[in-house]
């Protein structure tokens, strides 16, 4: 089976940005508000069948969040955010979990809304690139997840059937998009995330990526 990992929040820890947002806004929780606004924008564009690079959306949302705290985000702040996004650390469970999956015979690729150059930098800087067979970006098809095209890109390029792939993500909208494209899904809660209540139940639900690996390996061994 092919494991298709989302990157931001699923593999990489966005909490590393809290000090940046604390310095800009005085409130580290502004990081979550910024990410939520960014995803809201991305989903609206996707539903409208429009497209902007994910990094451009991320930068555009920063001044709006700063303004809610009475602060001003400058172009330099936007550039710094972009650089910090390239240097996010992996969650502690990720390296060993992917190593276990590969040892058990699973293929491992990533699929992210970030452009490919950013994704490559992120995985390399987090020490994960040697563990990943291929890096896919929604930018390659000009449609952000959860549109079907990014998932279809992975399936077509890897030459696997939807039933032979599992999308692993900490975002309900990503799980919903992958399920609609026919993939199995593994939702990673990481303590605070929840599946979308109006969508179908994920194939697997896990606390972290290590938990996903344990469930997938057990299911594979039982076949």
UniProtKB/TrEMBL annotation:
Q: Write out the GO MF terms.
A: hydrolase activity, acting on acid halide bonds, in C-halide compounds
Q: Which UniProt keywords apply?
A: Hydrolase
Name one matching Pfam family: Hydrolase
UniProt entry tagged with the keyword Hydrolase? yes
What's this protein's family per the entry? Belongs to the HAD-like hydrolase superfamily. S-2-haloalkanoic acid dehalogenase family.
| Entry protein name | Haloacid dehalogenase, type II
